[in-house]
Amino acid sequence: MRDQKSNRSVLITGMGSLNSVSENVEGFRDALYNGRCGITKSSEENGQISFGAFIKELDFRGHIDRLDVSDELKKKAVSLGRRAPEGIKYSILTSLEAWAQAGMEEREIDNTRIGIILAGSNLSLNEQLRIASDFADQPEFISPSYAFRFMDTYHIGVISELLSVKGFGFSLGSASASGNSAIIQGYNLIKYGGCDVCLVLGAAADLSCIEKHAFANLGALGGKDASIPAGSVYRPFDKNHDGFIYGQGAGCIVLEASDTVEKADALAELAGGSIVLDGNHGPECDPDGEARAMRAAIETAGIEGEEIDYINAHGTGSPLGDESEVRAIREVFGRHAADIRINSTKSIIGHCLFSAGVCECISTVIQMRGGFVHPNINLNAPIDQGLDFVMGKSSEQRIMYALSNSFGFGGFNTSIVLKALEG
Amino acid sequence: MDKDQIKSILFANIADIMDMDESEINVQESLRDLGANSVDRMEIIVETMRKIGVKINMLEFANIKNIQEMVDFLYERSEK
Fold first, then answer.
1. Using 50, 70 and 90 to split pLDDT, how confident is the model at A423?
2. Rounded distance, CA A44 to CA A37, Å?
3. Is the pLDDT of residue A43 over 80?
4. Domain A2-265 is classified in which CATH homologous superfamily?
5. CA dihedral angle for residue A174, residue A179, residue A185, residue A191, rounded to 10 degrees
6. Number of domains chain B contains
7. A143 contacts in chain B (CB < 8 Å)
8. Do B47 and A138 touch (CB under 8 A)?
9. pLDDT tens column, A300-322
10. Which CATH class is domain A272-419?
11. Contact A379, A391 (CB under 8 A)
């Protein structure tokens, strides 16, 4: 019976967001609309200057208090998150925001038909480094609960306990494409009857100084000229782009089957998506793989390329990456490419790595619903003059179909299609 | 470290890990009576040993009946 559900569509009914520019979806909308950048300059312990878009220090209990959920749920959240690492707190906050927006507390949904997919892998590198130095001093005193906290799937355990979710749960890694990959798996599971509701959780990457140095040594990090002000250092698609700036961002999306919720209560439709590998172990990008992902996503959505109004680009600001994506967009859309509005949300919140796809899906839905496209900030001299990048300020834009790209080291290329709901 | 200092470290850890007020802790009760599950109990003991600077095999805590006995035991095994 369940395999006959493929005519269902998949709706987004709730979103939660926390990043360097905002503590919820409403704040994110405001930052996007005004092009407010979250990047700051920070001094590392070894004196090396680095740029990043960091989540501000959190008043966890205060934040929980402001959420629109029952007191019982708030109490549970504080108990689960109080002593947990920051990354777990972020997941609790974004899940609760999304859960509240989807009205899940008021509705009776079989909790064995709700699942959780966690996007990303290696989510607690900074904490691991800290524990490693404790271990070097006194191995006897390592926190016993580290035995289950070091696993990425701890996020799933916490959120499933918090929300009493009893369907499936797993974590899914595909480098910087993890967010989109998790969204696509959620889509597939709902579409083909594996569940009715799926929480897609984009956990914030917590890189340690080791990974940051490796990215810097690889030449992948932007901000090589430390004299440039933090707000103008990150320049996706600009001739002066010089690499990515790390961002911390967490997000949660509630996906639901169209037969369990009224369309009018939904925020947007997830119309399709695609994940393709390009057979490459390293950081190199492949315009052909990127083009295949976009084409296949459009095909699963059952539409024509000409119907896409807007692309939320992967746009990391890496010179080779930006050029590759521009080539792929031109190849897929041909003459229509010039009619598509394009921006990179990374220019505002940095590159959130594993959660980027989730954060950028939320950004896309915000723009679709708000009837605008946000500026690709710091873009003065586009690498391709023929494409319609959003420059300067936000502009009004009706978006019926949007494409959101995420590509990752190791040859991952993903693309999702979002559809606005009529009326 | 004297016994009062050890007691105060243990109480602070119990209060932090169990999210309770120190005034709610009764030394005649066990950690289990206070609602601590096995992970909470291990966390409380390891964190207290770390702060006191004493290393004791966890198995040796198996026969401790209440919080007072734990304070006495930690004091006995700590460096005076």
1. low
2. 21
3. no
4. Thiolase/Chalcone synthase (3.40.47.10)
5. -160
6. 1
7. 43, 46-47
8. no
9. 999 999 999 999 999 999 999 99
10. alpha beta
11. yes
